[in-house]
Amino acid sequence: MSKRRFLKVFAAVLSMVALIVLVWGCRPFVDRQAIASNPVPVASAPMTAEHAGRLVTWIEKEADGIEAFIAVRDGKVLLSHGAVDLPMSLASVRKSVLSLLFGIAWDRGLIDLDATLAELGIDEGAIPLTETEKLATIEQLLQSRSGVYLHSGAETVENKDGRPRRGQFLPGEHYFYNNWDFNVLGAIFEQQAGIPIGEALDSWLAVPLGMQDFHASHVLYDSRGSDSDFRTYRIHMSARDLARLGVLVQQDGLWGRERIVSKQWLDRSTTPYSVPDSPFYDGFGYSWWLNSELNAVLADGWGGQYLLIDRDHDLVLVTRRDNGNSILGYLVSSQLKPEGHPADIQKLDAMIRDMVATPVQ
């Protein structure tokens, strides 16, 4: 083959490979248009135009990475701004959502919090657990105090760099925000409850709460990034549907007159068992963040996924940034868009507290 022909063939093959990579990179993670099982609009009690204008101006000019915002008070929408109906990846907010599912399963007698990894048959193929590590309980995993320090999927740099040495702490002895714990909890939930996370979310929460955008197919599983046997479960949910979960927690597990999850579980899961090294949170419960100064329960996800439940003022706030619905979208988002920040949702909470306490003059 002549050099000229070789270069033509090489260019054609390279173009084909680039096209395949582009198509693969643009393939959507979830169908954002999938129809919810029982969509029911939430009642609205809008704040004044002046107050709403102040908040929107602050979001657009002062805050970072907020593409959807919703505020709910007394179960009614105060303000909705941006793409609140768009299912986006929850990132680590998934862990707080799974905690709610564990609560429902616990209420139904499907989960024993004292069950150990050994009793549940949990082990790793590539790097087997030690007998001591197998003594970790479901409760300790929910608290991120398992004492199992193995690499897992969806880890941040802080996870990797801050991980204790294997065997450094016994189960229950030390708090470390550990994706291994959270990913294993996804597998344990499905094993013990006998239902996939997506189906449980749909039938146990989305349907009774009337979620408008969630579909069972919005829960994905990802094995990339580690040799662990336990996949990362990823949940996509809209801001307005996530706000419903916040209202459920705010209302001690009641939705209208229906009991969805017990107050006993919510009290346990929002009790601080550890003090994280964070300027924004001073407690960690069963996969929920806590701020005692605000008397708030929070969920926090990479990129700008935040849920704040202000118990003293019956407020629920959600801020979201779209991290992309494809590999390419994720790469573009992570490199080109500013990340959200927990300080912003706490500032919005403070602003709304003042507004609802002080009428417009």
From TrEMBL:
Keywords carried by this UniProt record: Hydrolase
Annotated InterPro entries: Beta-lactam-related (IPR001466), Beta-lactam/transpept-like (IPR012338), Diverse_Enzym_Activities (IPR050789)
Keyword Cell inner membrane recorded: no
Keyword check for Repressor: no
Superkingdom, natural source: Bacteria
Positions of the Beta-lactamase-related domain: 68-318
Gene Ontology molecular function: any one: hydrolase activity
PANTHER family, A to Z: BETA-LACTAMASE-RELATED, BETA-LACTAMASE-RELATED DOMAIN-CONTAINING PROTEIN
The name this protein goes by in its record: Serine hydrolase
UniProt organism field: Marilutibacter alkalisoli
Lineage of producing organism: Bacteria, Pseudomonadati, Pseudomonadota, Gammaproteobacteria, Lysobacterales
